[in-house]
Amino acid sequence: MKKNLFKGAFAATVIVSMLSFTGVNAQEKKIEIKDSKIEWEGEKVTGSHEGTIQLKNGYFTMENGELKGGEFVMDMTTINVTDLEGENKGKLEGHLKSDDFFGVSTYPSSKLVITSVAKKSNDTYGVVADLTIKEKTNTITFDLDMDKNSASTELTIDRSKYDVRYGSGSFFDNLGDKTIYDNFELDVNLKF
Length: 192
Prior knowledge:
The protein is of the alpha+beta class. The chain has 2 helices and 9 strands, in the order αββββαβββββ.
């Protein structure tokens, strides 16, 4: 009995020791929000619109100089249209923030969590992440280029997977030239 108790205590000590040293070299690289930029572009049959959105916060998890994970929160209330001015700019921003699109009064933020990473070359990682918009989460994949103090990527997001239905041919028939394409692009440049 004493032998089994001793073995159990020893095994518990070994496990706790191993867990204490796991990730010792892991560190969070906090994103410099003011120096980072996220640009979006959405297309419709008759043209396109573009703008920016700001991060609320974010970080990369690094271990021994290699990317291991990360988490990023986008402030959906900062959706900004950059290709229009005046009244038209205000109308489109208001519409994008409304329940027809992103419903920012109910869903003021969106989140991306990196779930796995594979190094593809010296400066490029293949990333798998969970993206949550309007409380709908879907897995996305993309390549991330990273150097000492910055990271960049281009993402294609299918809005229909996040219940953003307005003007979508996936949900409505006979939209004709009023159709807004489901995919929108994000051009992400992060500084840390």
